[in-house]
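Entry
Fold in token form

___
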Amino acid sequence: MHAYRTHTCGALRLSDAGQPARLSGWVHRKRDHGQLLFIDLRDHYGVTQCVIDISSPLFPAADALRLESVVTMTGRIAARSADTVNPKLDTGEVELVIADIEVQSEAEPLPFPVNTEAEYPEDMRLAYRFLDLRRERMHANIMLRSNVIASIRRRMIERGFVEFQTPILTASSPEGARDYLVPSRLHPGKFYALPQAPQQFKQLLMVAGFDRYFQIAPCFRDEAGRADRSPGEFYQLDFEMSYVTQEDVFAAIEPVLHGVFEEFAGRRRVSPAPFPRIAYADAMLNYASDKPDLRNPIVIRDATEAFRDSGFRIFAGMIAEDAKVRVRAIPAPGGGNRAFCDRMNAWAQDEGQPGLAYIFFRDGEGAGPVARSLGPERTEALRAALGLGDGDAVFFVAGVPGAFSPFASAARLKLGEELGLTAKNCFEFCWITDFPMYERDEETGQIDFSHNPFSMPQGGLAALERQDPLEITAHQYDIVCNGVELSSGAIRNHRPEIMYKAFAIAGYSAEEVETRFAGMLNAFKYGAPPHGGSAPGIDRIVMLLADTPNLREVVAFPMNQQAQDLLMHAPAPVPPERLKELHIRLDLPPARIARG
């Protein structure tokens, strides 16, 4: 008999009854029934109930076992009586009658139990992540992640993509976030950067003639964490293709994403390919977001003209004073009563807004202060344009769209949830296309790239030379699922003269471009194919499939929101001699004086 196990804790079945067996695992639960002691033994594969009678000389040792101790139990498999079968367990028809116990590793008292899904402080869970991962839900999430990655890899290879690995130590690149820098010992005063994405290398692979590349790529960005973004590092399905249009990229990746989601969605519906295409400008108008959740059917409409020179002086005055001001109408089917409208108004105030103007419809006409100020004709025109009727309502936001869009988007989502309009148990995909090539920095007033700087502008060099930069759109696109951005992508700029001009508009000199992007720029001078790709986020895909709003629930060893690894105690100081050989002298901020 094997030293540790003849079976895993998830393998035994009724057909094994009467046979000897040896199991090893963690003590999951203990239940004392007087004459009998039941011990649930758990390993990676499942749970098996083990039982020992009080008359056994091993009973005191079994009774003394602490939860989460690792033990080996040997005995004979017995069928459970019909009234004790546990249908929730794959092994629920049998139990192991204990004849021998060997303690492999005794556990100390636990900081929190792992045989329950009760919530505990996140910092505690991260500090003892090896215990947290023993919990059933977390264990399942990490296995889901592994299976999703395996499915993605298989599907990409089936579609003709070849897997390559790109460098981890590389040069700094303007990807929109701060780099993690690595000092060079051999080259004093110089630094490597951890890649924010394999962007330049995957383009160089296309120039090298490999045609279809992919990898499950680690990416590193020194940015703040949030629920749907891990600080420090994350993984993405990075891929690139040669001789393709935007639609070719969509056609290549849609079957992969649809197939993976369908494979792991359970009974949840997955929107079929081809996924809807929504231009960025339309997404911002109709949903006030470039990450629209299409499970929510509410579509925002422009209502500026209904309020221009109207009796509703607040909005009319704003429109008259600033040509950029717009009024947006957010329909609320089924929300047509004063109590609901007042509740939404109170919610808006809790969100830091002055309020949320509204009209609700009853007895064939509009009601509320806004309707009275607008008058019956304008109110009726609004109602007809929005397709609303008795029992419905409409809410309004006003201002410069760039400023109010986050709140308008939140209001749309809130209405969808409150009114029961947002669909459940489904995954709704869409592409957001035609992103602006540039944006103006509100603080500095400078023109900068709004998306990937290596994208091809729509209209090519002529657009860069003749159009207002803020009106230029790029062959850039995002894929969104249930309001979560899974990836950004683009058809790339593969021509040096366009690259020089695109970066010049963003304030880069030709010399700086040649210095910072020498490898890619030189490669383009020797014949570069048209190419494009994207990079759906692995963490976010698994987060959606696991139905959890937090990425840290699907990453084995994540950092906390302050970018700290509480398990391995990173970041940490290093000895002075290490700093010296790296030619680094610390210039730390003044220590904060504690106030007692």
